[in-house]
Amino acid sequence: MNIAVVGTGYVGLVSGACFAEMGAVVTCIDVDKEKISGLKAGDVPIYEPGLEDLVRRNHQAGRLEFSESLESCLDRVEIVFIAVGTPPDEDGSADLSHVLEVAATVGRSMKGYLLLVTKSTVPVGTSLKVKAAVSEELRRRGAEIPFDVASNPEFLKEGAAVKDFMSPDRVVVGVDSDRAKELMSRLYRPFLLNNFRVIFTDIPSAEMIKYAANAMLATRISFMNDIANLCELVGADVNMVRRGIGTDSRIGGKFLYPGCGYGGSCFPKDVRALVRTAEKAGYEMKVLKAVEAVNERQKNIVFTKLSEVFGGQLEHRHVCVWGLAFKPETDDMREAPSLVTISALLDSGCSVSVYDPVAMDECRRRLGSRVEYAGDMYAAAKGADAILLMTEWKQFRMPDWKSIRSLMHIPVVIDGRNIYDSDELAACGFLYSCIGRRPSSVEKYR
User: Is the pLDDT of residue 20 over 90?
Assistant: First the structure.
């Protein structure tokens, strides 16, 4: 089966490489000439475990090609996936300009039947706009060529995207014709060997499922962060509370871990877009507005805790930040809590040293020379008045605390992800604070 995937970001490149791995012949399209040249040379522009090997192997096997021109491959493909970016507009709604430009290009250049599938995260009603854009270009040409549209939202987790695609818990496909359903069934048939589910729906429902799923997960995170903040005030331990409610089969334990807020390319953007979609429909999403407000407040919690430790006197302090990416196993810093924290530290007159296993180059691109870049987690802690843990990378889980204590100027650890044992750090002489539990000491460093 021959398909094209327009867009070589997380969704497009992972989808294209995984379809190729299952035997499809895939052409990945991107207008970025430098990116396409790099991909042809085996240079994968994003960090995602397993993706580089997958891309190189399938490119060498001739199943995965890269091009700057969608028009050049339309004659030989049956399905075109739209996997371009949908960044938020100023009002929070999704910018569909790139999606509709792909649709217009297809309408201008197609010669035979095509199925056009939106894989980008798009609001309900986008497929109608895609269909209208294709139809308008065909009308201008005076051409009557049949085509279908479909929605196939992705549910990939950054850091586990390849695994999620190859072994998904479900695949959602929105269609409005038997021909489109047959094509999508044929494309996903190889995956059926893993006994996962393909859920066929109407197109608006498929578009809504993606937003509703991310909004629900974001809601659980913000809810648990609100509970954690209350736990600190009343003397409860959020870890005990989390375990207690997570064993309820109606609730479950996933996405109940408190911390310093969610970030990334999906949750913040999708929550805002869904709120905006509701506003356009004349409805107010009060719960999701609260979810967003709680999350924005939570991104400041690590800085707030640090300020409390030093009695608000942070000028000339040297602070170490462990973790920059919004989550482990990615270099993505979009809307990462670390950016909010570092900005607050710099504004308060602190000097900042940072370390992340893979996001250092991305941090340099964003922050330049405003922070110091350490070669490892121990070098970052040298001379520090405090360590702030912002991302729960595995290599941060068992530091040599005695060595770190000897490197630091003042032994303070603010744990934004609740991965450390308070008794262990207290025994090593640290003042330790995390999310949802009172610190073991109220001592302040002036």
Answer: yes
**Mean pLDDT of the 323-336 span:** 95
Determine contact, residues 405/385, Cβ cutoff 8 Å.
no
The span from the CA of 271 to the CA of 216, in Å, is 9
Q: Are 422 and 437 in contact (CB under 8 A)?
A: yes
Which residues 6+ apart lie within 8 Å of 264 measured at CB? 158, 326, 327, 332, 334, 335, 336
Q: What is the pTM of this model?
A: 0.89
What does the block give as tokens for 45?
């522009």
**Domain spanning 299-433, CATH class:** alpha beta
CA distances from 217 to 206, 256, 341 (A): 17, 9, 23
Given 3.40.190.10, 3.40.50.720, 3.20.20.140, 2.20.25.90, which CATH number is that of 2-201? 3.40.50.720
Residues 289 and 136: their CA atoms lie apart, in Å, by: 37
**How far is the C-alpha of 208 from the C-alpha of 203, rounded, in Å?**
9
Residue 194: how many other CB atoms lie within 10 Å: 9
Q: Which residues are catalytic?
A: 266
At 385-438, the pLDDT tens digits run 999 999 999 999 999 999 999 999 999 999 999 999 999 999 999 999 999 987
User: Could you tell me the pLDDT band of residue 443, with boundaries at 50, 70 and 90?
Assistant: low
Tokens 């792909």 correspond to: 102
pLDDT at 441 over 70: no
Calpha distance 15→48 (Å, rounded): 13
C-alpha triplet 196, 201, 202: angle, nearest 5°? 160
User: Which of the 8 DSSP states describes residue 264?
Assistant: S
